## 1
Amino acid sequence: MSVRNMPCICQKCQMEIQHGFDVDNVPHLDSEFTLFCPNCSSEQVFRYKDSKKIMAERKRIREEMELREYVKSLAEQYGFRCSFIYQSVTITTPCGSWRFDYHKRLKHLMHESTYKYNLKTGNESFWHHQFDRKMSIEEVIKYIDNHDKATMRRKSMKKEKV
Ligand SMILES: [Zn+2]
């Protein structure tokens, strides 16, 4: 388990302590939380100290939210839904789902097709690696749209044959 050390201020005595939070459980920047204050010798309400670290953290969060908004607005232009998990976005289209880390220039693109690969065994769809390419977020979403259109064309051609 990794820990993030944050400077915190006791709201009763104003003493500053460094507290290591479990990275998955770090309180929100503007929140109040309870910690043991060695000066008060009791549990007290604490807030983060408004340090450079906290301001950098606020900036990082704001930039992350802006980046997510940007990805979301691009996806919505094509009528795709998206959800964010850690560093990655999952984009869901009528033909399947796609996942990549939208922070990196080199896009490691994963694909889960809704198309059943084996109609005899009825195997479920699964994630596979599509490619690693240096491209912008916009280019990836355009690629997904083109891939969808090609899948639709293949499916409608199959239907015509039957
Ligand atoms: Zn205190």
## 2
Amino acid sequence: MKKFYQVEWLDIDFKEFETLSSELPTKSFYDKFYARFFEKYHSFDDLDESWVAYKTQIAKRINAIVKSETNILSIGSGTGIVENALTNLNSSLRIMSIEPSEDASRWVRANPKISIVNGYFPECMDKGVSFEFAYANNIDYVFDDDEYKAFLKSVVDYGVSEFLIITSANYNLKVALSLFIKEILGALGIIAKLADGQFWGYLRSKNEHREALKHAGFREIEFNKLGTDTMFIRAKI
Ligand SMILES: C[S@@+](CC[C@H](N)C(=O)[O-])C[C@H]1O[C@@H](n2cnc3c(N)ncnc32)[C@H](O)[C@@H]1O
């Protein structure tokens, strides 16, 4: 696991709304981020075309995996861009979308196939609701190792039998080399030091994911790539 830092996301400079910090972003940070996001963008059509195309690719991949499932759970759905694309691709799909930031999902609130629950999994779930299949798209980076294990265990304890993690917070040789070079350039004053940015979360290797998933009780674990930077990790009980 390796810490990483960011200064912007979706073309929004964090300094516009918050002082950069060496602490992980809190819910209040994400709330302020989304408030700025909705000032800048007014619909999915306003977003960078290549980013929307990337999210649509993710939705297509998820759709190919869910097959006959009709009720699925998304944990940490953000703006709901992937969930919206999924319901456009598959008319029989119903998605429960969990997202801590109350306003983040405003563009999908009117979609009758998406039900939004604000809060943290599993505390925010109503009793008696169950899902065979769940996914978490680009939220694994928020957890340190203990929290990640506890989160995965809570997914297993909830009764999910297949869990899909989609992540771009990868740590591999290429990433390690690139960080090493940036650290040297930062120390020489040629670029800003990485650690001067906002502490954004943790990068993980395949082995670290595998270990955490096994620890939680998953038995079958499969890794597949999407493009150069995104990993689909399919875990089954
Ligand atoms: C990088 S965004 C990804 C959003 C969305 N899944 C996507 O791919 O567009 C990370 C999201 O995780 C949410 N988040 C932060 N901490 C979380 C947690 N402990 N559990 C679930 N979601 C969390 C944030 O509010 C944010 O919307």
